[in-house]
Amino acid sequence: TEQGCCSYSTLKAWLPILSWLPKYKLKWLQMDVLAGLTVGLTTVPQALAYAEVAGLPVQYGLYSAFMGGFIYTLLGTSKDVTLGPTAIMSLLCSSVVGGHPQRAVLLSLLCGLIQAVMALLRLGFLLDFISYPVIKGFTCAAAVTIGFGQVKNILGLQGVPQEFFLEVYYTFHKIPEARIGDVVLGLLCLFLLIMLVLMKASLGSDDSDASTSSSVARKLVWTVATMRNALVVVAASLIAFSWDAYGHHVFTITGQTMKGLPPFKPPPTSDTTANGTVVPFREIVEDFGGGLAVIPFMGVLESIAIATAFGYQNDYRIDANQELLAIGVTNIMGSFVSAYPVTGSFGRTAVNSQTGVCTPAGGIVTSVIVLLSLAFLMPAFYYIPKACLAAVIICAVAPMVDYQVVAKMWRIRKLDLLPFVVTFLMSFWQVQYGIMGGVAVSGALLLYNAARPQIKVSDHNVLLMELSSGLSFPAMEYLSHIIHTQALQVSPPRSVVLDCHHVSIIDYTVINELSDLLRQFKLRRVQLVFSGLRPSVLKVLLAADLDGFRHTDSVEEAMQIESRDLIDD
């Protein structure tokens, strides 16, 4: 029936898996398994490292890395996106929960609920108010904060505070305490990771018409470079294990981790401090403060930006509200397995796309690898050196520092540097304040442009005033000021033709101000004539029954009016 068809199409809109699963092919399965395996081997070491950025025990990184694959397969609209822990979400989480695992899990639930409600209310458009300069300012500052935050682990330093400026001071202050083993291993890992990144980048610039043996070698190099994080972590762990076995504790290692899969249980609604004091739900939410607004927004923004970018690249479209729902449900369900808030990962999504993933089902394979790691490999993670994880993080966030964007903004619109700089600088103080400050400055610039539209004034016996943009109520006071100073307060007073062909909407405040202006023109025995009105605007103005209202279809027609003559319609 038609009703059944409509209900099925609605179901397909809410469950995008129904669009591609009936057409699934065996060839797709091979590509999805290959991509899922590759991404899985990238996810495990990154998840462990990002837990460190979030200030949580390393197993929480893996707890957060598997739910996204299952949920996104059902609800996601991009074949490439992989959900899981990211550098930016880990930094935001650290700044809000301060290393308390219970609070991080509760934060995941609350973020998920906010995102899911936003999806159901179709509030995805709110993300449009976070401008590109704000996003760039934040990501650059986050990359610097996260990258420098790992220098202490490369140096093997203990007791360095989390707050950025104190962290910078104490890192340099404690350099004499650096552990030689950590420094050597950390720099060696950094060197290897950078070399592998450069080798992978050089593959893309070579000619493709190479011999078969050369092609095999290229594929081998590409595979090794793609799995570089896993290979470096395994190699560093073996080195640490072998030194430990001989009784030489020269590296700072991850240490004891929880074994096995996380229990499936409702997220905690209270927290217990070190001295046994129970912190109630309301107090925790108050402590979250602005982070509870920033983290859901940034999570969605990051993921949708990634999905859109890869959609353009691979020629498909995404549904922003559906992406919002997928991330929301992932965070809600993740909170039942002790996850902290997650979003789309640019690095892992790029690996997924380059490996040739065909559907979101590749995420299931990635999630299975994470679950297998949790079930069987946790004891081996004891020996992962912190310097090695720090090298992985630094290499992951380094590309986020986009210094070229400053030069582009300077060339295109210098004013855009203001929200960029405000966001960048404030993010070093508190990450969430940086985003809020940037959005506030962007909003102020947007409102200023609405309140101060460009008005081109030219003299043709009568004054012609051309509005370069729409006429909204914040702009009306400014227009009124221009008309008074240039037409009504001069001697003798001048008639004005108002070119309104850009005006598409009009409100009560504008009508009220126009009524007063028409009265002022009538008192001075000069005319205010409207030209080029759109039918919808003309209908509103006629309905308002303004005394002395005159209009013409074109500016040329209005220009022929003598300044002191009354005009007939």
TrEMBL record:
Localization in the cell: Apical cell membrane; Basolateral cell membrane; Lysosome membrane
PROSITE patterns xref list: SLC26A (PS01130), STAS (PS50801)
Transmembrane segments: 33-51, 105-125, 180-199, 220-243, 288-312, 324-342, 362-382, 389-407, 427-448
CDD domains: STAS_SulP_like_sulfate_transporter
MF-aspect GO terms: antiporter activity; monoatomic anion transmembrane transporter activity; secondary active sulfate transmembrane transporter activity
Gene Ontology cellular-component annotations: apical plasma membrane; basolateral plasma membrane; lysosomal membrane
The entry's keywords: Anion exchange, Cell membrane, Ion transport, Lysosome, Membrane, Transmembrane, Transmembrane helix, Transport
Topology in the lipid bilayer: Multi-pass membrane protein
Residue ranges of domain STAS in the record: 461-569
Main subcellular location: membrane
Xref: InterPro entries: S04_transporter_CS (IPR018045), SLC26A/SulP_dom (IPR011547), SLC26A/SulP_fam (IPR001902), STAS_dom (IPR002645), STAS_dom_sf (IPR036513)
Reactions catalysed: sulfate(in) + H(+)(in) = sulfate(out) + H(+)(out); hydrogencarbonate(in) + chloride(out) = hydrogencarbonate(out) + chloride(in); oxalate(in) + chloride(out) = oxalate(out) + chloride(in)
Function: Sodium-independent anion exchanger mediating bicarbonate, chloride, sulfate and oxalate transport. Exhibits sodium-independent sulfate anion transporter activity that may cooperate with SLC26A2 to mediate DIDS-sensitive sulfate uptake into high endothelial venules endothelial cells (HEVEC). In the kidney, mediates chloride-bicarbonate exchange, facilitating V-ATPase-mediated acid secretion. May function as a chloride channel, playing an important role in moderating chloride homeostasis and neuronal activity in the cerebellum.
Family: Belongs to the SLC26A/SulP transporter (TC 2.A.53) family.
Name assigned to this protein: Sodium-independent sulfate anion transporter
Organism: Amphiprion ocellaris
Lineage, opening ranks: Eukaryota, Metazoa, Chordata, Craniata, Vertebrata
